[in-house]
Structure prediction request, 347 residues.
Amino acid sequence: MNPVVLTRAYQGLVRPVLFRAYGGDPEAIHEVMLKVLAGVAHTPLAGVAEWLVGERRTPVTVAGVRFPGRVGVAAGLDKDGVAARAWACLGFGFAELGTVTATGQPGNPRPRLYREPDVGALVNHMGFNNAGAAALAARLAGWGVRRGEASLGLPLGISLGKTKTVPLEDAAADYVSSLTAVHPYADYIALNVSSPNTPGLRDLQAGPAAAELVGAVVRAAARLDTVPVPVFVKVAPDLTDAGLDAVLDAACGAGAAGFIATNTTLAHDGPAGGLSGAPLRERAREVVARVVRAGRPVIASGGIMTPADAGVMLDLGAVAVQVFTGFIYAGPGLVAGINRLANGRLE
Prediction:
């Protein structure tokens, strides 16, 4: 189906129903939709979904990992991998699960997820709610997932975060604990040091702290596998240029394979938490342009609400893009549209 038609159908027919469901509670409908997608995976309905969004994907190799397409699921959309078997049939070329922590935790009190439809945004104050790294590892193992096999139809990244109760000085060991649990199933690891919803987490972006953390995880990855899983670092849009350069230099020096830019921003009015979506568009582009100069692969995330937004990120030098808020507002037509655009630009 034409991506524009698909998007209009979603926005006109499906989205209004979803946004009103469960009393308008965005987190409740999100949880239900993940379960629906999980139930659809590997049924005839998955084939219907593939037909609807069946744009040919353009592959790219990123840090030694072959992505069959340029658009991926951003971290936070499927924290515990509930719908991991469904993302390929919706046209995604990779999926980043998580953020998970070494032990499960409930996250911040509800309500903690808010829509701002007038500006095409979400605000979340989730706080790394997840079942824990071991639970995600068990789920993926049960499906026969192994690194490098793309048995779910696409490679999987796994985003790691700091357990809330762990002091910052023990953060490196905490991340390594999570890595140890998930490394057999991850095609790449993303270190989330930029969420605004865990107190003190963004301090790990400071040069020395970033060097210590990235170095510890990279060394652990080398001990765990003959060919170590590549480690990416996800950066915040709220860093100054000097702060961004410092974390890039530190992470590169410690062996980071690449970067994900950006996380959510605190530069907004309204509910507490990180803002994503259209208002983040310009700042995310600025950050991606600067991160690309570090000479490592960059996956762009933030403010990608249309295929044209993805095209700008690819033109800036990003090797791939991730969507979350744009997917909520535009549906699978956004994925199909980005795949069509990537085909035209990159062939």
